[in-house]
Design the sequence.
């Protein structure tokens, strides 16, 4: 795709802050002009007043100088501030949109793409784009303005001298481009070495037992030394290239200085230039040569930013979204009958996960799905919640294909407890309500009491306001599970999907969990993906899945009598010690 | 240092020639002007050559020191043991090698060398100015002196704000990661808006902290320029007056205008150097802390024994991890005779891995509880111990290197014949042959991703090739499919028996356990059953049930 497309994509973000950006550019120009006037004023002071011994005039021009310096100071601050403010705000908006877009993407996207990549998009890539504005466009524009104005001023002051003085300039530009490019490449390599050093360390330290048992310390040591040596040498080369660059520009600027002295001086003797001119020229040299010293820096920042911009644009264009119907059906009173009709599904085209699944759970019923790991049980929950669409066949609620409902609507009457319990950084209360403010404390406490986790929560240092962490280090696996039950209970869904956790927990907690579960399933349609068969003995119907197909379906008692796969599964579990 | 003095002195001379040239304009002496102009060029050339050379040498020295610090840290890490890395965050230990050495390096290059250079330059410049016009030099320098506290103060604050910004960036990352891991829950409960709100609140904090940083950072540059311009203002006003009064020449004025720029730098540098120094000192402290730490696992009164046969005896071993409250192992007693194959099974978390790690002395066992060839494990020299044990860890860890290098990890002199034999035993030869570069294929972070089962088989080959008298296999086949599993067990048993190697294998797979000479069941830190496989089966205990369950699953899949 063309760069133009990518740029166009982000224009709305920029135009939102056009005022700030315009202000920033105006002050950039004011600042540049002021910095141009200062040498000019020095020149005037020397030529017009100091040399003719006009103290009065000197005072005036010094005053003017002071004012210019102050304006320069203020406008530079305004310019830097507005540029960054605009940049940071744009980035904030962008991050907001990216996060929102991410939340919209289908579950399948996240099982396909590594999470590190998505995180990088929202964090680092945005950071890189920020550079585009503050260090990229504005800085480059500023530099160009500086050079251009300095040119205008020196040619205006003394055309001939200016012509002579700028002779070394093209060489300086060439040096900036060549040495700068080389320097960038070297620093890129240095960064690679740092990454390698980190990988090497990460590996050695995580595999330390292995390294020590196999006596591979020497090998790791020499590998590390090889990389560290490469780092050292490349870094030195990069540093010297950067010094070389700076010094070459210095040489050229010194040549310009001597040109000013020799030719300017000669001209001054002949009355074709003034001493003030020489002073002013010496000052302008800084504006001409200064920007060249870090020109290549800015270009590489720019390149980096552009590559991030492309990645962000592609991420925002990601279309892996489960679509809502154009004219969604809305039903006032959902009863909670769930039916799967001839459902076929596969995650990848080659291996079918589910074949011809027919399943029915009527209002208030409790059905269970059992089978070996990998038989496709959890997939059924994914389809009922419409995280995925079946390849063929339909999932129906109260006789309506759920594809005809809005996703939001489907999920308003369905609740879920997942195998992998999700606890996020926030209070216990927030973890139960998931931030829904219309759920009052009474409801929360009642639910927690019913599940049997209230007494545990009140024992925590800050009760319901105790902060939990993502890893949930401060609470046990079983307690995490009970909190997730409470969460499902306060949401009071018509249909409950329960993917039982496989993790082993001690017997006390297990009893608590059994009790909590029973409470949770009361009065609603429940679909339980069961691992502990004790939970589902009293289920209305048990579906036994093997290799993606339903092989048995009936009540516990009848399935036991049949002595089929369920019987085997059941006896196996209860023979365990 | 001599070069430095020379350079700085020369640099200070340039404005003098400018001054003389300007004064020569007054005298209308063109020859003199050209002469001075050429002098400037000559001196400038000299400065550049010398500055380049001394930068070359000194930076090389600093980087050499940086290298020494890095390798010293890394070597130290290599001598530390697992418990050390459990206590310390690996990320933090890595940061000491990269970030902390950088702080030291930055101080040396930018702070110390740069600082010295600039300080010397500053002093010489000031002396020159003072000689030319004492009073003017003092007045002109006043605003420049203000740069010292400015730089110092800002250096600190910017660093502090920057750290805050960084930590918020971290928090933002946590929020995104969290949302990704909980995406199903978020969607199922339709709480997208709440998570967006949570994210936005960090997003907003991040914005405002960044703006704070900008306010500070954005003030610094203009302030520096402003102070320099103030100096210029004083120069023009005061110096101009002095010229009018004929107390200094116009050349002096021009020279001073150049000196102002030269002098500004040293002032800034003083401030920054102090700030850099403080950071470097903190970093150096963190580096020293590592270098001074002592490994916990070391030889205590080692006996003189060069090789081991592999007779392992454990007597009443109870063990708890450092800082843990409960014992993992509770009075374990078992013996493995030379050449015997012992299988250990039991529920997860029963202490199987701990037992193997104690034999490896990843942790120190209590005295008089573990014996090898009759010697207390603690008295066997570590070197001998490591030379005698081959190991397949639970997590089959591969280094980012070629397959060959990974296989030869513990026996770098192994011949290709030995390598081929090892991969045959581990039943991974066929897989390697299908790879484009065979044994030279890169694996790990920068190479191809191998499946869990393939990694486990490489780990087995890696252990087999060491040919050590005692081999420990920690659940080595958990990710290998059943057919391959059978092949490996057959090969492995032949190999171990043929070479009379003692082996302890922990596993949950009955097919592996059934091939052992003896099986022990470790449950809750105690040995609850042990005996020959068929004898144990008849006891109808844990092993029996495990067996039945797996046979059943085997039928279904």
Sequence:
């Amino acid at each position: 795709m063309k760069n133009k497309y990518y740029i166009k994509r982000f224009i709305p973000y920029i135009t939102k802050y056009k005022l700030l950006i315009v202000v920033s550019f105006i002050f950039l120009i004011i600042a540049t002009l002021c910095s141009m006037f200062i040498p000019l004023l020095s020149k005037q002071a020397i030529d017009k007043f100091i040399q003719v011994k006009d103290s009065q005039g000197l005072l005036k021009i010094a005053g003017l100088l002071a004012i210019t310096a102050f304006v320069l100071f203020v406008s530079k601050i305004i310019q830097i501030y507005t540029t960054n403010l605009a940049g940071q705000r744009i980035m904030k908006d962008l991050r907001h949109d990216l996060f929102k877009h991410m939340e919209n993407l289908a579950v399948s996207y996240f099982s396909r793409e590594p999470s590190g990549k998505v995180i990088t998009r929202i964090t680092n890539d945005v950071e890189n784009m920020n550079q585009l504005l503050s260090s990229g466009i504005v800085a480059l524009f500023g530099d160009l303005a500086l050079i251009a104005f300095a040119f205008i001023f020196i040619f205006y002051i003394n055309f001939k001298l200016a012509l002579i003085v700028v002779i070394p300039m093209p060489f300086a530009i060439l040096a900036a481009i060549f040495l700068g490019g080389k320097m960038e490449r070297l620093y890129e390599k240095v960064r690679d070495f740092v990454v390698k050093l980190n990988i090497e360390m990460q590996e050695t330290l995580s595999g330390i037992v292995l390294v020590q048992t196999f006596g591979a310390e020497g090998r790791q040591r020499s590998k590390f030394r090889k990389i560290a040596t490469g780092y050292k040498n490349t870094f030195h080369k990069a540093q010297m290239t950067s010094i070389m660059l700076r010094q070459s520009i210095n040489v050229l600027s010194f040549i310009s200085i001597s040109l000013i002295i020799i030719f300017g001086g000669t001209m001054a003797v002949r009355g074709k230039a003034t001493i003030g001119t020489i002073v002013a020229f010496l000052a302008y040299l800084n504006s001409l040569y200064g920007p060249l010293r870090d020109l290549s820096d800015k270009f590489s920042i720019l390149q980096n930013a552009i590559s991030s911009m492309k990645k962000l644009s592609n991420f925002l264009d990601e279309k892996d979204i489960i679509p809502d119907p154009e004219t969604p059906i809305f039903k006032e009173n959902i009863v909670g009958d769930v039916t799967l009709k001839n459902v076929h599904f596969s995650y990848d085209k080659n291996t079918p996960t589910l074949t011809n699944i027919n399943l029915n759970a009527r209002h208030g019923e409790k059905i269970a799905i059992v089978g070996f790991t990998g038989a496709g049980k959890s997939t059924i929950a994914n389809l009922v919640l419409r995280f995925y669409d079946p390849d063929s066949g339909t999932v129906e609620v109260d006789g309506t294909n759920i594809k005809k409902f809005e996703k939001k609507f489907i999920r308003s009457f369905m609740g879920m407890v997942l195998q992998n319990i999700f606890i996020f950084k926030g209070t216990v209360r927030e973890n139960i309500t998931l931030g829904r403010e219309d759920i009052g404390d009474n409801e929360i406490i009642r639910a927690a009491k019913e599940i049997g986790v209230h007494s545990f929560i009140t024992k925590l240092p800050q009760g319901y306001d105790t902060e939990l962490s993502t890893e949930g280090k401060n609470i046990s696996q079983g307690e995490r599970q009970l909190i997730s039950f409470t969460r499902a209970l306060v949401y009071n869904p018509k249909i409950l999907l329960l993917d039982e956790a496989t993790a082993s927990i001690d017997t006390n907690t297990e009893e608590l969990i059994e009790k909590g579960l029973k409470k949770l399933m009361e009065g609603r349609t429940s679909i339980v993906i069961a691992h502990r068969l004790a939970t589902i003995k009293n289920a209305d119907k048990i579906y036994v899945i093997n290799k993606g197909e339903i092989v048995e379906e009936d009540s516990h008692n009848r399935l036991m009598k049949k002595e089929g796969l369920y019987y085997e599964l059941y006896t196996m579990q209860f023979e365990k010690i | 240092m001599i070069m430095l003095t020379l350079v700085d002195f020369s640099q200070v001379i340039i404005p003098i020639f400018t001054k003389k040239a300007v004064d020569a304009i007054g005298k209308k002496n063109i020859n003199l002007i050209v002469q001075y102009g050429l002098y400037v060029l000559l001196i400038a050339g000299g400065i550049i050559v010398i500055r380049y050379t001394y930068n070359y040498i000194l930076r090389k020295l600093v980087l050499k020191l940086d290298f020494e610090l890095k390798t010293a840290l890394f070597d130290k890490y290599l001598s530390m043991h697992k418990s050390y890395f459990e206590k310390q965050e690996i990320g933090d230990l890595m940061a000491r090698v990269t970030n902390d050495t950088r702080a030291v390096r930055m101080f040396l290059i930018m702070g110390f060398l740069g600082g010295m250079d600039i300080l010397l330059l500053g002093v010489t410049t000031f002396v020159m100015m003072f000689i030319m016009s004492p009073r003017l030099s003092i007045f002109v320098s006043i605003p420049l002196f203000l740069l010292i506290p400015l730089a110092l103060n800002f250096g600190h604050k910017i660093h502090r704000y920057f750290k805050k910004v960084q930590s918020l960036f971290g928090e933002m990352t946590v929020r995104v990661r969290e949302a990704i891991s909980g995406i199903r829950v978020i969607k199922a409960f339709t709480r997208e808006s709440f998570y967006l709100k949570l994210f936005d609140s960090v997003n907003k904090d991040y914005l405002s902290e960044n703006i704070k940083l900008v306010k500070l950072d954005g003030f610094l540059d203009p302030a520096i320029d402003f102070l320099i311009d103030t100096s210029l203002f004083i120069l023009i006003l005061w110096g101009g007056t002095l010229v009018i009064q004929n107390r200094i020449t116009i050349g002096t004025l021009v020279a001073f205008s150049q000196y102002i720029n030269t002098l500004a730098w040293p002032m800034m540098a003083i401030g920054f150097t102090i700030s850099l120094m403080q950071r470097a000192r903190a970093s150096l402290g963190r580096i020293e802390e590592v270098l001074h730490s002592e490994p916990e696992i070391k030889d205590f009164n080692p006996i003189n024994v060069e090789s081991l046969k592999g007779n392992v005896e454990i007597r009443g071993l109870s063990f708890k991890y450092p800082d843990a409250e409960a014992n993992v192992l509770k009075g374990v007693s078992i013996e493995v005779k030379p050449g015997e194959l012992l299988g250990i099974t039991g529920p997860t978390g029963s202490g199987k891995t701990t037992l193997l790690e104690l034999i490896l002395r990843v942790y120190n066992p209590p005295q008089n509880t573990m014996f090898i060839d009759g010697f207390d494990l603690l008295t066997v020299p570590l070197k001998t111990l490591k030379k005698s044990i081959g190991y397949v860890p639970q997590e089959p860890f591969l280094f980012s290197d070629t397959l060959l290098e990974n296989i030869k990890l513990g026996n770098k002199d192994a011949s290709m014949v030995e390598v081929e034999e090892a991969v045959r035993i581990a039943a991974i030869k066929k897989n390697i042959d299908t790879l484009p570069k065979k044994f030279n294929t890169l694996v790990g972070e920068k190479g191809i991703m191998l499946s869990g089962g393939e990694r486990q088989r490489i780990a087995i080959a890696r252990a087999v090739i060491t040919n050590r008298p005692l081999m420990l296999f920690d659940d080595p086949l958990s990710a290998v499919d059943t057919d391959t599993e059978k092949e490996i067990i057959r090969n492995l048993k032949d190999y171990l028996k043929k070479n009379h190697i003692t082996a302890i294998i922990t596993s949950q797979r009955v097919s592996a356990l059934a091939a052992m000479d003896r099986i022990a069941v470790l449950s809750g830190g105690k040995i609850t059953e042990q005996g020959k496989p068929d004898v144990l089966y008849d006891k109808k205990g844990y092993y029996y049930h495990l067996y039945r369950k797996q046979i059943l699953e085997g039928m279904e899949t």
